Amino acid sequence: MAVIDLANPTRFLNLVNRVLPWLAAATAILFAVGLYRAMGAPDDYQQGATVKIMFLHVPAAWLGMLGWSVMSVAALGTLVWRHPLADVAGKAAAPIGAAFTFICLVTGSLWGRPTWGTYWVWDARLTSVLVLFLLYLGVLALYWTAEDPGRGSRAAAVLTLVGAVNLPIIKFSVDWWNTLHQPASILRMGGSAIDPSILTPLLIMAAAFTLLFFTLHLAAMRNEILRRRVRAMRMTQAQEARA
Amino acid sequence: MTALSALMLRDMRLAVRVGGGALMGALFFLIVVVMAPFAVGPDLKLLARIGPAILWLGALLASLLALDRLFATDYEDGSLDLLMTSPMPLELTIAAKAAAHWLTTGLPLVLIAPLLGLMLNVEISATGALMLTLAAGTPALTVIGTIGAALSVALRRGGLLLAVLVLPLTIPVLIFGVAAAEAAITGPAPFGQPFTILCALSLMSFVVGPFAAAAALRHGLE
């Protein structure tokens, strides 16, 4: 089944209804395994047990950026390929990505207090992630203030592509600037710098978070399609009541 | 007279004539800068320390307020539709409108900056450098704002939405503008470094902005 076959909303809804329970179950299992391994991971020699916030903070950060990437692909689908469900995908991904970015900022702040001595610092990584969060809020504002869903989606798609320039800035901010935030230790030249006893639970948690994102995303897309159907039906009803 | 210069002249005449959009921005800049000492207190040393930042924030907010005017009036009376269907490329049209907008809104901000710098106890010797940073940075603010204005032109509840969309994108301009101004005032950091990056931001946004704004107009007004 090609992507274009999913352009039919009914066929897409059928696929989602079949896939979603399995996806949700897989998410739950991965979370269970990940949290179990995370609890069993060794403490850091300096930070003690505080380091375990990382198992929430790092996947949330990755998912915040993944959310914007999914929105960017959806934006290309809306503007360039004119896929009928692309704007639904973008609109559904925005609140989820914003929530993950918020979790990243909050868990990072709580982690920073005992380890750095401050809840917040204006270094490059934190500032660029905060800018990402503000861009999420801007896109959400565009989706919410547009009366016509289609027009708002197209404007939001343009803003999504403009804001995508922030993603490489976030990734490389710790390399380009002198930051308090730790430099890259996972995706870098020369391989990861983290011991496998901590890296493996981290990657399991990241996979669990990713499956959670797509579970929520598909569910949100289903909700949005149903919401639009309700709106269309209400408008038809109002038309007929007038006539 | 070419179509480009005709469009620019039209926009400049409209801005100067009706609604006073041109000088209103400068007036708002003045008011914001006057508010600052009321908020932080009259300590001259403190004002000198944060002077460049206040000036840049005031210029940013004044640019933001004037952006509403860029497409809204043309959208209401139908000239935006004419411009979009004309043989001149929409990107070029938007670039011309942005240039005219900067000349009528951004340039007055640059010109009254010395007076405002005086009120904030900014060193006289650094005023020239401050004007230079504003002159290099306000075009970027105008063009990035054009993207936001294009996005919100069709949505009726524009206003603050425009600010929410534009402000995060203008953060780099603000950072380098203030860095350049402070380098000129306090040294020893070199002025040239942040200033050239500021010029680069303006040039880049002038190239990319019209394309993004044209896409926003085309798709938003379908």
Q: Main beta sheet of chain A, described?
A: none
Seen as an oligomer or otherwise, the chain set is: heterodimer
Compute the number of strand runs of chain A.
0
Q: Which percent range fits the helix content of chain B?
A: over 70%
Radius of gyration of chain B: 18 Å
Overall shape of chain B: it is elongated
Q: Give the helix tally of chain A.
A: 7
Distance between the termini of chain A: 42 Å
Question: Which pair of chains forms the biggest interface, and how many residues does each contribute?
Answer: A-B, 23 and 21 residues
Radius of gyration of chain A: 20 Å
> Low-confidence segments of chain A, ≥5 residues, pLDDT <50?
none
Shape of chain A: globular
In round numbers, the mean pLDDT of chain B is 88
Secondary structure category of chain A: mainly alpha
Number of domains of chain B: 1
